[in-house]
Design goal:
The protein has helices at 3-15, 19-26, 30-33, 42-49, 52-60, 76-83, 86-94, 108-114, 118-126, 145-151, 155-165, 173-193, 269-287, 346-355, 357-366, and strands at residues 198-203, 210-216, 224-230, 248-256, 297-299, 315-319, 328-331, 334-344. By secondary structure, the chain is an alpha+beta fold. Strands 1, 2, 3, 4, 5, 6, 7 and 8 form an 8-stranded mixed β-sheet that branches.
Length: 384
């Protein structure tokens, strides 16, 4: 059997929690055991998916517990901490896994903080992880774990770290304010789409904000996955003298119910591009000191290239949400405008530029095209 096929079967076996199959496929081959995939080693994959039994078996077979790789470029410990699997974190630590703090992306404590896993943060602190190390770069300025927790609005972890440092608990007005309006916005969103299942957080170099992408799974009333941002509205967009335009914005994007949003899929551009573009659009005003508004079309290059190999969609159009009353949310931060991202074809972009984006939306509606992503939908730009 070819190595590519073996790798595919091992990954499938891990996803299916099939320990026996994993052992059978790997056998006693150390190269296969420690092979590096786009998702890291098999230990990374099992750790990120919460498969404790498979993690233990891989370690017993001789898997390198400190091999670097995966989504964050760190060890399997970091994958488990970032994904919230405390049982695996505890086991890997008992096996002598390094608490790598060489980079913020590899730091398991930062991974736990990003996703709000208080119990894991507490365990790592108890095990002696360095909470005082500070990172400097374009995205972080002299930032330690406590500063990062404050920036992310993780108040429970803030208190944990302040107590560890022996500091008096204080409130950071700006961070509390940010968390307040994040909560206000999400409270409005969940009324329409249902509760948030999990969130993806990261910092982009050069941007003034840290954007969180919240994932709302399908429900009985909503047959699609909803992605919504917070953090984009932590800072106003640059409007110069355009006082009539909204200064604060967040974004919304709908995916088919079959579209899974997991760490294992992040390296697959055919699968990941909608999330990537949601993040890109959220950072554009804060990297380029500009603004976005309804009707803006953002092409994937010039001329626009298809977002992925399985679709010809190539530009993003900003629209009002179809849900009545969701286009504007009043918060303590101010009124936040919510824009829905709608991927379009090159011919549709040309049509919108010639006749207006409202005209394009009308033509799409006439063809029964909704705001849920359909990578193979009709191109109304060629029907004219």
């Amino acid at each position: 059997m070819e190595s590519k096929q073996v790798a595919k079967e091992i990954r499938s076996a891990i996803k299916e929690s099939n320990i026996e199959k994993v052992v059978e496929l790997i056998g006693s081959d150390p190269d296969l055991l420690n092979m590096m995939t786009p998702f890291g080693s098999w230990l990374h994959v099992a750790a990120s998916r919460g498969e404790l039994g498979i993690v233990k078996k891989l370690v017993e077979l001789g898997s390198n517990i400190n091999m670097q790789g995966g989504v964050y470029g760190g060890g399997a410990l970091n994958e488990a901490a970032s994904a919230g699997h405390i049982d695996i974190v505890r086991y890997l630590l008992s096996c002598g896994a390094d608490m790598d703090v060489s980079e913020p992306e590899r730091n398991p404590l930062f991974g736990a903080i990003s996703n709000g896993y208080v119990d894991i943060a507490k365990l790592l602190v108890e095990k002696g992880i360095d909470i005082d190390i500070k990172y400097n770069g374009e995205a972080m300025k002299n930032m330690d774990a406590l500063a990062f927790a404050r920036e992310q609005g993780q108040n429970e972890i803030v208190r944990l770290l302040e107590n560890q440092k022996g500091e008096v608990t204080t409130s950071i007005e700006s961070n509390n304010s940010n968390q307040d309006h994040h909560d206000e916005l999400l409270q409005r969103v969940v009324k329409y789409f249902g509760p948030v299942k999990n969130s993806i957080s990261e910092i982009v170099p050069g941007s003034r904000v840290s954007v969180n992408i919240h994932i709302i799974p399908p429900s009985m009333n909503q047959n699609f996955v909803t992605l919504v941002t917070t953090g984009m509205s932590d800072e106003p967009m640059d409007y110069s003298n355009e006082e009539s335009i909204f200064k604060y914005a967040e974004l919304l994007l709908k995916l088919p119910s079959s579209w899974t949003v997991e760490e294992d899929d992040m390296k697959d551009q055919d699968h990941y591009w909608p999330i990537d573009w949601l993040r890109k659009v959220a950072h554009i005003p804060h990297i380029y000191d500009g603004w976005i508004e309804e009707g803006v079309i953002l092409p994937n290059g010039e001329p626009p290239k298809a977002f992925a190999s399985n679709t010809k969609l190539s530009s993003i159009m900003l629209c009002r949400p179809k849900e009545v009353g969701l286009d504007k949310v009043h918060t303590k931060q101010g009124d936040i405008k919510i824009y829905s991202l709608v991927p379009i074809y090159e011919e549709e972009k040309i049509l919108a530029l010639e006749k207006g984006y409202e005209y394009l939306l009308k033509k799409m509606s006439e063809q029964g095209i909704s705001d849920v992503l359909d990578i193979q939908r009709i191109n109304v730009g060629v029907l004219q």
